[in-house]
What we know:
- This protein is α/β, with parallel strands linked by helices.
- Helices cover 36% and strands 19% of the residues.
- It is built from four helices and seven strands.
- The chain has helices at 13-27, 70-76, 102-114, 131-149; strands at residues 2-7, 31-36, 52-56, 85-88, 90-92, 117-118, 124-126.
- The strands form two sheets. A five-stranded parallel sheet has the order 2-1-3-4-6, sandwiched between helices. A two-stranded parallel sheet has the order 5-7.
- Helix 1 (13-27) crosses helix 4 (131-149).
- The longest helix has 19 residues, at 131-149.
- It is globular and about 40 Å long.
- The two termini are 13 Å apart.
- It comes from Weissella cibaria.
Amino acid sequence: MKARVFYATITGNNEDVADVIIDTFESEGVEVTKEDIQMVDPHDISADETDIVVVVPYTFDKGTVPDESLDFFEDLEDTDLSGIVYGVSGSGDDFYGKDFAVAIDKFEAQFEKSGATKGADGVKVNLSPDVEATEELQAFTKALIAKVNA
């Protein structure tokens, strides 16, 4: 089984989220790669080579997706990712209230347009993963694996 984790970060918090997900994949025997989202074209993702895609975005300026992930985000709409399981999780700051980590919701909606299969509900982490958030991210990752194996 192969997974790819695409992340965007300014503060390093989202890289911490991505690392928890990656560590969990590795502990479950999944081959995983970690990639900066701005270096990835969704049109190049193939179900022949990838079973699971995870996007780890931060939320910027009143609920927008990160600038460095805009190309990926926009291209998802016209990309066929049938046969691939996806998940979206990331950090935010609950100081922003209703805009807290909404980039996760926006990415999930874009993935729905791609034909990919949702493997787990996204995990919204306040700032950096604490013990509770780490456990949620581990459960999230294991649910993605279980979806592929189902």
